[in-house]
Design brief:
Length: about 70
């Protein structure tokens, strides 16, 4: 757990709030579009974690143990 010294949960909270408000503002399409754009440009959120780690097979293959080799 040494590598997780300064990891914050606030990006996840922000993503959940954006998704929640996007669902609430569904009848207003301009607000939903604005919130969707905000979600896409939030580079610290879980969406960008998934996008940036898609090429790392060690994280996504369940049958192999993660070794931390990022090449």
């Amino acid at each position: 757990m040494d590598g997780y010294k300064y990891v914050s949960g606030f990006p996840l909270v922000g993503t959940i709030l954006i998704a929640f408000y996007s669902l609430i503002s569904f009848p207003k399409p301009e607000m939903s579009i604005y919130l969707s754009i905000l979600l896409l440009i939030d580079t610290g959120g879980p969406l960008w974690f998934v996008i940036c780690t898609l090429r790392q097979k060690e994280l996504w293959e369940g049958n192999q143990k993660f070794k931390g080799n990022f090449q």
